[in-house]
Design brief:
3 strands, globular
């Protein structure tokens, strides 16, 4: 899993990018448990609704805009 999480919130039409992954309940392990940690982080810490978003974990902070 990557260091950053980019979220597309389809309900409000906005894109968010997060990197403060030290807030994960069980840490950032680099294994299959990270998916559950990410879901917890996005819903509990960042108040997203999983039904309304798409997300991706990645290492490069660069956002391509063109």
């Amino acid at each position: 899993m990557g260091k950053y999480i980019t979220v597309i919130d389809h309900k409000i039409g906005r894109i968010f990018q997060y990197e403060n992954l030290e807030l994960f309940k069980d840490g950032w392990n680099g294994d299959e448990n990270d998916i559950e940690n990410i879901k917890w982080y996005l819903t509990t810490v960042k108040d997203h609704n999983l039904r309304d978003i798409s997300w991706i974990a990645h290492d490069n902070i660069e956002v391509i805009t063109n």
